[in-house]
Amino acid sequence: MFRTQSIYLPLHGGKAPFWLLNRMKKLSKIIISVIIDEFGEKEFFQRISNPIFFQSFSNVLGFDWNSSGVTTVMTGVLKSVLNCSDFNIRIAGGKGNQARKTPEHIKKYAEELDVDVELLVRNSKLSARIDGNALQDGYDLYHHAVIFSENYFTVIQQGMNAEKKLARRYHFAPSKLRDVELSGDVHSGIISVRKEADVINLVSEKSKECRKTILDIIKSPDSLKKDVELISVKKIPRGQSTLGGVIFDFAVPARLNWNAVERAYDLDVDSFEDFLLIEGMGKATVRALALIADLIYNSEYDRQDPAKYSFALGGKDGVPFPVNTGVYDETIQFLSSVIEQSSLDRFEKEKIEKKIRTIQIHH
């Protein structure tokens, strides 16, 4: 298991220059080819879903080491390489409008690979609901990419905190192509400039009982309406202590999506994954149900921020945390071996190896 850490991702504007993108595509194709040929497709998915490898890969290709644009540019480069080549791996989605077209992309590429379209679309939607609604950390998703083959898949997403002008990237653990199941190890890592003081983390194993209670609550809509009135936003304002002495940092929303609650009741959902996928079950309604489960039914949710990685050296307030040097060194060694086995000429190899040594110095 990795230690809980984070990474600095300030928001940057602009675009990567054309001359750089072309070189990034050429080099990334060579590196991906060597990884798959030498270590297999599974290794590629394990590597690309590792936040440190993803960041280091971008460094080697020449992109900004700590920019939020790493996510969008790297995903764009990988899409160009994987979706237009002989690799049996595809990427659906992307930033903004491209993210909204993910189901359309999945249909196109899943048919090319003869993969279950409905399964992938469900996993795509569920992963977005997990990082958008089940984990409420103050960052709104604007980038969503699903990487898949006939055998494996992973998801890379990014959220933005507009007020703080910071980004946060979410990496799903690679998995065999099957239904996503909500559990504490669903993420391989989450990178962010800081650990937030208080979040609603329904993804955590510590929130298992809270998730069960929420499913019970929606089976009694009439009772739920009384619960909402009991701890309405007027009665327990943000920042007030509860009877147990806990500071209540999330106010119960004044309005819930009762249509979504009714749908959940009619469908009689028995899994939290199905609950998250119900149309209209947004952040506010999920937050309200989590708070009611905690404050009325004593089913606490995890308030710990699950961010895991940092490339930054730290700050005056003690965050971000130091990087996991073991994983970082392993990544550098792996990339070095891949470059050594590649078909690049001697000059290009020496130039990239110099870049890798520079990354080592920075870390």
Structure description:
With 363 residues, this protein is of the alpha+beta class. The protein has two domains: 18-197 and 307-362, no CATH class; 205-295, no CATH class. It is 47% helix and 14% strand. It contains 14 helices and ten strands. It has helices spanning 18-39, 41-48, 51-61, 69-82, 97-100, 102-113, 117-134, 208-217, 221-230, 258-267, 272-276, 283-295, 325-341, 346-362; strands spanning 89-95, 135-136, 140-149, 152-161, 166-172, 175-176, 187-192, 200-201, 240-241, 247-248. Strands 1, 3, 4, 5, 6 and 7 form a six-stranded antiparallel sheet that branches. Strands 2-8 form a two-stranded antiparallel sheet. Strands 9-10 form a two-stranded antiparallel ribbon. A hairpin with a 4-residue loop joins strand 4 and strand 5 (166-172). Helix 3 (51-61) packs across helix 14 (346-362). The relative contact order is 0.15.
Quick synopsis:
The protein is of the alpha+beta class.
Number of domains: 2
Structural class: alpha+beta
Order of helices and strands: HHHHEHHHEEEEEEEHHEEHHHHH
> Helix proportion of residues, in percent?
40-55%
Strand content: 5-15%
Largest sheet composition: 6 strands, antiparallel
Note the overall shape: elongated
Question: In whole angstroms, how far apart are the ends?
Answer: 21 Å
- Please give the radius of gyration in angstroms: 22 Å
Number of β-strand runs: 10
Return the average pLDDT rounded to an integer: 80
Which stretches are poorly predicted, pLDDT < 50 over at least 5 residues? 1-8, 311-322
Count of helical stretches: 14
